[in-house]
Structure prediction request, 317 residues.
Amino acid sequence: MFASMLPQVLVDGLTLGFLYAVVALGYTMVYGILELINFAHGEIFMVGAFIGTELLLLLQSAGILGGINPFVSLAIALITAIILTGGLGVSIERVAYRPLRNAPRLVVLISAIGVSFLLQDLVRFTEGMARNAFYLTGPTLFKKAYKISSTITIQEKSIIIMVLTIVMMIGLSLFVNKTKWGIAMRAVAQDQQTASLMTINVNRVIALTFFIGSGLGGATGVLYAQYYGTIDPYIGFLLGLKAFTAAVLGGIGNLKGAMFGGILLGLFESLSAAFMGPLTHGNFGAEYKDVFAFAILIIVLLFKPEGLFGEAVKEKV
Prediction:
């Protein structure tokens, strides 16, 4: 039975893992430069999901959605979410983080948690006022499914999600490693004071980092909404924690580590959800998959706190 289920579980795990990986990139980019855990990043992902879903619902109510190619509709939703959530990330950095840049890290962490709850409540209030409910179900653009074999069925939306997330990850890697702005980001991550002496505008580089990380998070929110269909203001909290777990697993501050950690966590979670019940004779079901994910975080922090691809470094003073 396990062998027949495994291929489908792996496909589902890869889809989920790619979503985790892109969100984890936002955490690791900000940490790499500011050594800040941006706990509001999960809520930026959630805002992106609502922006994309509301835009598609608006097109649907106007009678336009059915006449547009679904790839065009998805592109419109993604671009809109990237621009708006990227701007939101820059605004959060300017208002909530930059004034506290020289403050103790605990202060900045509390500020990030406060922004997280603020975004949750703002979306809940806005949706409640507009729709008298804050659970939102949007139109599904891709409904086809391809039966590969008797045990494997791949949904069209899963293929699109995996392809787009891979494109985003490769694009980010090329940007960071091959462009002048990417070199500036790495220089600022290495030493902000020296970078500023080399005529690098540190504030502008940090703002760009927040824009890119937040934009990718918002785009992933749109893909998440397409995959699951129904969203609410709290989806970013748990998924954000899991993406943070993925970043720690791979080595926070390491882009390739974040990608690998996200994919690995998605596979672990999918495997545990599918097989934990049969292996424990029903004592533990699929609902314990979240426990499994955070158990991984504890184990990594205990035995390899720098992550699988991270390097143990001395704390900057």
The chain has a mean pLDDT of 85.
